[in-house]
Amino acid sequence: MERVLPGQPNPLGATWDGSGVNFALYSANATRVELCLFDPSGRRELMRIAMPEQTHEVWHGYLPDIRPGQLYGYRVHGPYAPEEGHRFNPNKLLIDPYAKSLHGDILWHDACFGYRVGSPREDLSFDRRDSARVVPKCIVIDPAYTWGEDILPRRPWAETIIYEAHVKGMSARHPDVPPAFRGTFAGLANPKIVEHLSKLGVTAIELLPVHSLVNDRMLAARGLTNYWGYNTLCFHAPAMRYISPGRGIEEFKFMVKRLHEANIEVILDVVYNHTAEGNQLGPTLSFRGIDNANYYLLAEDRRYYFDTTGCGNTMNLKNGRVMQLVTDSLRYWIEDCHVDGFRFDLATALGREYDQFDPSSIFFDTLAQDPLLQSVKLIAEPWDIGPNGYQLGNFPPGWAEWNGKYRDSVRNYWRAEQGSLSDMGTSLLGSANEFDHRGRRTWASINFVTAHDGFTLADLWSYDSKHNDANLESNRDGHNDNRSWNCGVEGTTDDPEIRKLRNRLRRAVITTLLISHGVPMILAGDEFGRSQGGNNNSYCQDNEINWLDWSDTADHEFSQFVQGLITLRQKHSLLRSAKFRHSQPVGGDGLLDAVWFRMDGARMQEGDWHNGDEPRIALMLSAQGERSLIIVLNPSADEAHFSFLEIAQGIRWRCLVDSGGGVIEPDELVLIGGQTLTVAGRTALLFEGEEIVN
């Protein structure tokens, strides 16, 4: 029998202090908590130890003979009364919400559920089968790691360029990554991959969820995988699928350190809005069995969950201990793992007081008063499926937000949709209509045209409709509103004219993204022309649909074009302006910070923005002491003639970008103010002005 001392209620979780391990678990409604210790295989339960003390609803004990590497779990006793919101079942081994590492994967079996699957009134029944043999075990870890001189990049928002990626997708097919490391944190840290990111010019990599997750039973039965990872369960532990055999959290830290050495920040996509336990018919793996009534928001009929996430449940951040779990998780990834920021999945759900979103909610106020959490980048996915779920622009100062309206505006514009001009103009200057309030800056807008959820950039111009048959849901899943265009042929084609048109549109879109005010986000693989074969919901495809192709078949020419655009963006501060531009004077020479022009060289008037027959436009950006820039956009198929500005007489305009030709800084394209420029169809141009010295 292990020696057991009272221990301390803080910190929560299993904490190795160099002499022993303190265990602490929050449960307000439990009547008894047992700590279960397992052998190294996780198959044999060695003993159960009743937690000797309870302090302020925290059950705790100290075991001086336990060492790092010990496998454990909990059994929690209490009422099984679903009608009251209680679902305690000590027959179910439970994962510690604060576990920092897990052993094994879930082996789906009816024993994973607290009720008798298939019985009448299922969720009100009680299942007595032991689940220990089919659920993961927690591991006590030694958190020590030698960081050396790791320096956090702390890149300013105005310089930030985000690359959204999946850990496995980055290295699964990379020829220079040893097979044992492909798909892991070590694979992502491979010098060749880091070199590519650095050479491309991105400043931050935003990783799809890396927290421990559960592979849905439905997907497992179909032979599929929850590849994206938005089905997390343990907010402190990395998913073991991304860790090489025999290694632990130190591999994640190694990856962060290598990326920091390249001056690249690491942003984690985190899921705190719901857990993998699902609705009332979901498994009992952790929170449900520890204290269901406190960890989750329950409906008026307390057998059910108040679900604003579409995933069966919503975390109860109104409970102080649940809020503490989230903030402790964030602090852990910052302090122990040196993470630089977070993107919050379905962030509207985190800011709800049940059915109402509140930018002054407990969640936002808690993060706002914490100096550590305010020191990193915070990004919201500003929607959920609850009432008034789309809250773009309504998050508090200090937050950036995924701008879905930017995505739709750019797609509509380059498809030459009627009425798309006004939204495109707003998007180019940072979406001031959404974000210019409460002292917010242009970087509040995370601009993207493609992301993990939806078509890739290549597929955007290759498919009119989704092709999700591989998901085995009869193509019913995924969005139907893709705002895409196949350029005349659905899918791949050998037609040289269609291929040329698709490449032209890709270049126009990526140019628009990288010259817009706000923070650009690029989807991993878009720089290579990656296709998912028209699958716009590839969440369950752990295969070449999602893995980056690093071979010679990749579009390296387009990658070089993207690299050139990023270099120009970082060079020209006018493209990275943090302040919104509203055609205000910049000095005493009559210049304005932003001026819009028609193709005839006249300034845009209010009615021009709603002229559906003329989508072509030009924008001049100016700032005191800097050379002005002119952006010219022509989304139509026909060429246009742009009369270079009378206000720009005496200025020589040098072309920096010609998306139509795929050229960065072409030497031959130089014009003088007052001349006329022929703008090819479906082309974005960028010019820099300089005074002519006689």
User: What's the architecture of the domain at 13-139, going by CATH?
Assistant: Sandwich
- Identify the CATH homologous superfamily of the domain at 13-139: Immunoglobulins
How does the helix and strand content classify structurally? Answer: alpha+beta
User: What is the percentage of strand-forming residues?
Assistant: 15-25%
- At the first level of CATH, what is the class of the domain at 13-139? Mainly Beta
Overall shape: it is elongated
Strand line-up across the major sheet: 12-13-16-17-20-21-22-23
What's the Cα radius of gyration? Answer: 27 Å
Distance between the termini: 94 Å
What CATH calls the topology of the domain at 13-139 is Immunoglobulin-like
What ranges have pLDDT less than 50 throughout 5 or more consecutive residues?
none
Report mean pLDDT, rounded to a whole number.
95
Main sheet characteristics? 8 strands, parallel, barrel
Number of helices: 15
What is the percent of helical residues?
Answer: 10-25%
Number of E strands: 32
Structure keywords:
694 residues, alpha+beta, Immunoglobulin-like, 15 helices, 32 strands, 20% helix
Tell me what the structure shows.
The protein has 694 residues and is α+β, with helices and mostly antiparallel strands. Among the domains are: 13-139, Immunoglobulin-like (Sandwich); 580-691, Immunoglobulin-like (Sandwich), CATH 2.60.40.1180. Helices cover 20% and strands 20% of the residues. An 8-stranded parallel barrel has the order 12-13-16-17-20-21-22-23. Strands 24, 25, 26, 28, 29, 30 and 32 form a 7-stranded antiparallel β-sheet that branches. Strand 28 and strand 29 form a beta hairpin. Helix 10 packs across helix 11 and helix 14 (496-515) runs parallel beside helix 15. It starts with 12 loop residues before the first strand and ends with a strand. The relative contact order is 0.08.
